[in-house]
Each structure stands twice: as structure tokens, then as C-alpha cells.
Specification:
Order of helices and strands: HHHHHHHHHHHHHHHEEHHEEH
Structural class: mainly alpha
Mean pLDDT: 86
Largest sheet: 2 strands, antiparallel
Low-confidence stretches: none
Distance between the termini: 41 Å
Number of strands: 4
Length: 461
């Protein structure tokens, strides 16, 4: 008998790969504009705090709603959920660009401190955030649920590939948005046009390539109503598991620090380092690191438990914040040009984003894996929805925290330069970065204590 034939793994199914390709386009649409949301809203006149609060609300919707929308997707079929999602996303990106395209608004050169946005801008922005939040909340549990149903026993490898594929979309979206917004005749609002095109392409990929996995279909209104009630009861019951709740709360600390890529780092760079930062290119360090090292690190550390891996990742993102202290005390400060190309502060921002990428490699995929193994049959979408809850909590808290740290801590005693950049008091700026790092270290230590507690629970049973 040929044992080599018996042990040779079967290839992943066509549906596994079609789901991943669709995920590339959806992530390209989102990350193509994500690095500039707080800057765009600031230049649109939303003041010091509202850009970060709106952005954190957007992230909160995207990652909180899957707790319910993922379970609903289990019942209405993933394909139908994906089609609805991409329609909503297309309208959402259009609404965000509307104030500039059709509303007659003009972006300010530097974000102002006070709210000056008109109601004609506020309404489409709020609608856009709502549409994107609901639409994106349907995508990730549907795709992740498909991955879980098609990987068989190779769950670690399957989710590692899934997470790496997300980064390809992340990378492509940023690069394309950079090229478009720097093309003559386009401005910052063009990032939403790129996002619209990507979501339309994803819609047709679902139509022609994606096939539903084996799922039961709910056919009547009464059955659907009963299903929704059962979903809510299941969620309530699941959240009475103290081990699950503690894990979700501690894990949210990682994403509270991660959220600063899209809140504090853009604000800090735009207002203190350079007037026209290429945040889409600077933050591309994140997907490049993940694409380059994901499979290698997964292979090396495959024997690590998910909780141990999450501990390492959280400690890394905490340490990444401390990197930005160095340019504050170097000759020329954060605005000093290196080879007349890029400010010193921006180089360290890139380094920070790259380190966060390493933290993600250890954390994000393993979190999905940890919760996916707990999912009862038929509730895959629901448990993939739970995997999003730490991102939602971390993003909501992180958005407020980032805006507060920048405006109240880092900018204290700052002086405005002739070029309208802020020159920060190095001591005050240090305080902000240290506070963020300490938050990460506390969360990492909490995960370590959690792992010890879980080990005792297992040994006692």
C-alpha cells in the first residue's frame, strides 16, 4: 500500500480560493481609503475629535455587527449575504465622496481644530459610515465561514492563507489609491472612487465564481423570525461563558493599539511631521511584512498555542509605540529630511507600522483559529462574528484614546510653525507614546495570566 498517497493532503477546493479572491477586492476597497479617513474628515471640517470618533464608530460597526450578521448569513446563505454586502459598500463609498464630488465642498490644506462642516457634508458622511459598516459586517463572517467549511483538518494553514490574502488586498488597495490620488485632476476624495470600483468588481466575482457551501436554507418569514430569536438567545448564552468573555476583553487590548494606525499615526504625521504625508504608502509596510513573513512565522511557531501566540503579538504592538520616541530627540527632530526625500518622523512611523505587522502575524490569525475551534456545527458564522468583537471594542476605545492622547497630551505646550505644522514638546509627546506602550504591555501580561488560568481549569477537569 502506498502510504505517500494516503498522507498526501488534498488541494483546497475551488470555493476556498474564490472566497479568498473576493476577500482581496473587499479589503482593497476598505484599506484603499482607511489610512486617510481621519485626515479627510479633518480637512472636510469635522474638527479635532470627530474624525477619530467617526472612524472608530465605522470600525466598531464593521466588527461588532458580525456577531449578528454572521449568524444571519448562516441562514440566508453566504452568497446572498455577500451580494447584499457589496451593494451597500458601493453606496457607502459613494456617500463619503459625495460632499466633494457633488456637494461643492473643498478640502482645507490643514485640518482645523473646530467643527466647520455643514449639514450637507455631515448627512452623507453618516450615511456612508452606516452603509459601509453594515455591508462590511456581512463580508468577513461569510468569507471566514466559507474558509472554515472548506479547509478540513488544515485549519491553521487555511486561516494563515486567509489572513495573508487579506494583506494582498490591503497592499493593492493602498498602492492603487496612492497612484490615483496623485494623478492630475484627482484629489484625496478619489480614494473613495477606487473603493467603489473594487466593490463593484467583488460583486460580479460573487455572481460568477462563488458557490454556497452546504447550508440549510430558511424559506418562510416565521422560520426566519424564529431563527433570529434563536440567534439572539445563542449569543446571550455564549456570552455567559466567563472564559470566552475574558478572552474577548483582553484580546481587545491588541486592537486598541492596532487602531492607532488609522487614528493617532495619521493625525501625528499630518499635523507634526509633514503637510502631505503618503499615509497609504507608509502604512503599506503592514501588509508587506505580513505577506513576507506570515507563512514562515506560522511554520516556525505552529506548535505554539493560540493564546501564547496572541501574548507575543500584543507585546510586540506595545513595544512598537516606543519607536517614535527616538526621532523626538534626534538632530533636526521629526521634520528633518532624510536624503531630501522623507522626514525622519515618517521613517519611524513606517517602522512602527511594520512592527505592528509582526504583532498581527502572531495574533490575528490565531484568534480566528482559537474561536473557530469552539464553533458548534451550523454556527460557524456566529463564532466568526465573535472573533470580530475584540476588534470592535479595541477600535471604539482606540479611536477616542488616540484623539485624546494626541490633542490633550502630545500637543500640550506645542507651538505652531510658519508652515502650520505643530512643533511638539518632546517630553509631552513621549508621555503619549509611553501611555500607549504601557496599555499594550498590560494587555499582554493579562493574556499571560489568562493562559495560566485556563491551564489550571483544564488540569482540574
Amino acid at each position: 500500500m502506498n502510504t505517500d498517497t494516503q498522507t498526501k493532503p488534498t488541494p483546497f477546493s475551488a470555493n476556498f480560493w474564490s472566497a479568498n479572491v473576493i476577500q482581496i477586492f473587499e479589503r482593497a476597497s476598505y484599506y484603499g481609503m482607511a489610512s486617510f479617513v481621519v485626515i479627510y474628515l479633518g480637512q472636510l471640517g469635522f474638527g479635532n475629535y470627530w474624525p477619530s470618533l467617526i472612524n472608530s464608530f465605522l470600525w466598531g460597526l464593521i466588527y461588532f455587527l458580525p456577531i449578528l450578521s454572521g449568524a444571519i448569513a448562516d441562514q440566508i446563505r453566504f452568497k446572498r449575504a455577500l451580494l447584499l454586502a457589496f451593494v451597500l459598500l458601493s453606496f457607502g463609498y459613494f456617500a463619503l465622496g459625495y460632499p466633494i464630488w457633488f456637494g461643492g465642498e473643498v478640502l482645507a490644506i490643514v485640518p482645523g481644530n473646530e467643527v466647520t462642516a455643514s449639514l450637507d457634508s455631515v448627512i452623507p458622511v453618516c450615511l456612508g459610515v452606516l452603509f459601509i459598516g453594515v455591508g462590511a459586517s456581512l463580508v468577513r463572517p461569510s468569507i471566514a465561514g466559507t474558509i472554515q467549511k472548506t479547509v478540513g483538518s488544515r485549519i491553521t494553514l487555511g486561516f494563515a492563507i486567509f489572513f495573508m490574502i487579506i494583506q494582498f488586498g490591503n497592499l493593492f488597495g493602498r498602492i492603487i489609491s496612492y497612484k490615483v490620488r496623485n494623478t492630475s485632476g484627482f484629489d484625496l476624495s478619489s480614494i473613495f472612487l477606487v473603493s467603489m470600483v473594487a466593490t463593484v468588481a467583488a460583486f460580479f466575482l460573487v455572481v460568477f465564481l462563488y458557490k454556497d457551501t452546504d447550508m440549510a436554507r430558511i424559506t418562510t418569514k416565521m422560520e426566519r423570525y424564529e431563527t433570529i430569536v434563536n440567534i439572539l438567545l445563542t449569543i446571550k448564552k455564549s456570552l455567559t461563558d466567563i472564559r470566552l468573555v475574558i478572552f474577548l476583553i483582553i484580546s481587545s487590548g491588541f486592537y486598541m493599539i492596532f487602531a492607532q494606525i488609522y487614528n493617532l499615526l495619521p493625525l501625528y504625521t499630518k499635523k507634526t511631521v509633514e503637510l502631505t504625508p503618503a499615509m497609504d504608502i507608509y502604512t503599506v509596510a503592514n501588509p508587506i511584512v505580513i505577506i513576507t513573513f506570515q507563512l514562515l512565522i506560522t511554520k516556525i511557531f505552529v506548535k505554539f498555542t493560540p493564546i501564547k501566540s496572541i501574548f507575543i503579538g500584543t507585546a510586540i504592538v506595545g513595544a512598537s509605540m516606543l519607536v517614535n520616541i527616538f526621532p523626538l530627540y534626534m538632530a533636526g527632530g521629526v521634520t528633518q529630511l532624510v536624503n531630501d526625500i522623507i522626514p525622519l518622523g515618517s521613517i519611524f512611523i513606517v517602522m512602527t507600522v511594520a512592527l505592528i505587522g509582526f504583532g498581527e502575524i502572531f495574533t490575528s490569525g490565531r484568534m480566528w483559529e482559537y474561536l473557530a475551534t469552539l464553533a458548534p456545527k451550523g454556527q460557524e458564522g456566529l463564532y466568526q462574528g465573535f472573533a470580530n468583537l475584540p476588534i470592535a471594542l479595541g477600535s471604539i476605545v482606540g479611536g477616542f484614546l488616540g484623539a485624546w492622547l494626541f490633542n490633550e497630551i502630545m500637543c500640550k505646550n506645542a507651538t505652531e510653525l510658519p508652515n502650520r505644522l505643530l512643533q511638539l514638546d518632546p517630553r509631552q509627546a513621549c508621555h503619549g507614546w509611553i501611555i500607549l506602550a504601557c496599555c499594550g504591555f498590560v494587555c499582554a501580561f493579562s493574556m499571560f495570566l489568562y493562559s495560566r488560568w485556563i491551564a489550571k481549569q483544564i488540569s482540574a477537569t
